[in-house]
Amino acid sequence: MIDVQQVSKVHLRGHLEVRALDQITCQIPTGSFTFILGPSGSGKSTLLYLLGALDEPTTGTITIHGKSLQSMTPRERDQFRRKEAGFIFQNFNLLSNLSALENVLVPFLPQGVTSPQRQKAGELLERLGLGSRMEHRPNQLSGGEQQRIAIARALLKQPKLVLADEPTGELDTANSLAILGDLRALCREQNSTVVVVTHEHEYIQPGDHVIRIRDGRIADSGSNPSA
After folding, report:
1. Which of 94, 103, 119, 152 satisfies CB 3.0 to 4.6 Å to 138 for a cystine?
2. Is the separation of the CB atoms in 100 and 125 below 8 Å?
3. Orientation of helix 115-127 relative to helix 143-155, angle to 10°
4. Cα(169)–Cα(176) distance, rounded to whole angstroms?
5. How far apart are the first and last CA of the chain?
6. Rounded alpha-carbon distances, angstroms, from residue 47 to 7, 53, 164
């Protein structure tokens, strides 16, 4: 369970305080596929970054699988991001000088890539329909193919938590549905908790957990009974 209690995030712009989140309280069930919905500027991406320890709340607490992010040292938060959380972003964040396979392996390059990691990366790309594209660089691939590489990169370490910020924002509807289908299937196999930020409602399925945010506050939260 991810437990968010009374979380606020305030940005200072000169002498002006901008409240991105205002006393947010919500829970995300372990193993769920959760959507954070809201219009632009509602605070949904801010919440996602806080869940991934990419930023810290001004006030409040976030507990993930029994661990309080606020009680962690900077090194422990870095370990959490590296080992327990997988990130998927709208703009893919692929390195242009690396092949598809190398981009999947990027998180492991500093420590050295092992043979099992390389094999697993290839298997993930095969599963995602990119078996013949492993040596291609990002500029040789479509947007949908690049996003699949980003998914494989996030899932290679089998994270407990997968955080996706508008992962289909650059894709057409057909590609978006396929990408989310792939993400659902792979995360179900790995028993990962998935949190997706989006402003699109049509990708929600029965049983998904939905959190709606407006103006930095929770408007509604709970399981979706029907799509």
Report:
1. 94
2. yes
3. 140
4. 8
5. 23
6. 9, 10, 12
Q: Tell me the per-residue pLDDT of 65-88, one tens digit each, with 9 for 90 and over.
A: 889 999 999 999 999 998 999 999
Question: pLDDT (tens digit, 9 = 90+) per residue, 191-224?
Answer: 999 999 998 888 899 999 999 999 999 998 887 7
State the DSSP string of 20-69. Answer: EEEEEEEEE-TT-EEEEE--TTSSHHHHHHHHTTSS--SEEEEEETTEEG
- Rounded CA-CA distance 187/160 in Å is 9
Do the strands 85-89 and 161-165 form a parallel or antiparallel pair, or are they unpaired?
parallel
Do the bridges between strand 67-68 and strand 16-28 make them parallel or antiparallel, or are there none, so unpaired?
Answer: unpaired
Name the band, by pLDDT with cuts 50, 70 and 90, for residue 14. confident
List pLDDT tens digits, range 93-137. Answer: 999 999 999 999 998 888 889 999 999 999 999 999 999 999 999
